[in-house]
Each structure stands twice: as C-alpha cells, then as structure tokens.
Amino acid sequence: MPKPNWVKEHEQETATASAPKPKPKAKAKRKAKPKPKLKITDLKPTEMIAISSKLLRTVAAETFCIEAHGHGMEPDISSGDYLMCTPMRKYRNGQIVVLFDGVEAHCKYYIQNGDEVIFQNGKKEIFDAEGFEIAGRVMSKYGHMFNKK
C-alpha cells in the first residue's frame, strides 16, 4: 500500500531539517596588495657610464651612482654632486651611506653605539630610518662633473 502524501511530505521535512545545513561562505576579505619594495638595483638607470672596476676599487656590477639633492649633508655633499656607491657587508662609524625605501634615497652618516645604529645628517639631526634599508656606502663623489644644460 502506497504512503499517503502527508506522510511523504512529513518524511521530506524531517529529512531536510535533520540534514546539516551548509554554512554560508564567508566573503573573502580582499586586502590591498602591498606594493613591492624596490631595491636600488631594481631601478632602471637613466644614464649608463662605463667606468673601470680598477677606478672604483670594487665590483662594477654592484656599483650605482646617484645625484644628491638638498643641503642636509653639507659641507661633505652638496646638491648636484654625483655619488658613486656600492653595497657593503659591514659599515663603520662615520661612513656616509645611502638609505632607500623603494621610493626615496637619503644620504646619512652611519653611527653605531653598541647594538644601536642611528643615522644623522650633516647638522647632527637624527633621521628616522624606519622602512629604509642601507643600499650602499658612498665611495666617492664628483661635484658638478658633468655639463648640465
């Protein structure tokens, strides 16, 4: 004998009620992708100048040149000076280093006191270097060496 419709409906309701309900999917939160941090070596050169490794006294492939802007490192570095820089494994007190955060580069004195390292400009003002990495040490400078037009 077939089951009456009301029994079939009741069985379907109880089967549906006892079955685990699928959890609603949580919407995935989209985080803004952080911009990749650039390194000095990632930047495309604006000009290439062939210089012998013997003159640089270091590996030419790792050496980079930047032009100084501003007056924070005077009298040692003036605005418009070209700075030949190279990465080092260790830095010593008093050396001028280039700090880079992927956007800006700054030249500062490297000062180490125990485990603490601070960076300061020519006026002895301390520079907040959070987010910056040392890109290299200034090996030499060339003041107004190239003709500017």
Give an overview of the whole structure.
A seven-stranded antiparallel β-sheet has the order 1-2-7-3-4-5-6, with no helix packed on it. Helices cover 12% and strands 28% of the residues. The protein is an alpha+beta fold. The longest helix is centred in the N-terminal third of the chain and has 14 residues, at 5-18. It has a domain at 40-143: Umud Fragment, subunit A (Ribbon).
Keywords:
28% strand; 12% helix; 2 helices; seven-stranded antiparallel sheet; Umud Fragment, subunit A
Envelope shape = elongated
Tell me about the biggest sheet?
A: 7 strands, antiparallel
> Given the helix and strand composition, which structural class is it?
alpha+beta
Report strand order across the widest sheet.
Answer: 1-2-7-3-4-5-6
- Strand content bin: 25-35%
Please tell me the CATH architecture of the domain at 40-143 by its name.
Answer: Ribbon
Q: Let me know the average pLDDT.
A: 76
Please write out the topology.
Elements: H1 5-18, H2 53-56, E1 64-67, E2 81-86, E3 96-100, E4 105-113, E5 116-120, E6 126-127, E7 133-143
Antiparallel strand pairs: 1-2, 2-7, 3-4, 3-7, 4-5, 5-6
Give a brief outline of the structure.
By secondary structure, this protein is of the alpha+beta class. The protein has helices at residues 5-18, 53-56, and strands at 64-67, 81-86, 96-100, 105-113, 116-120, 126-127, 133-143.
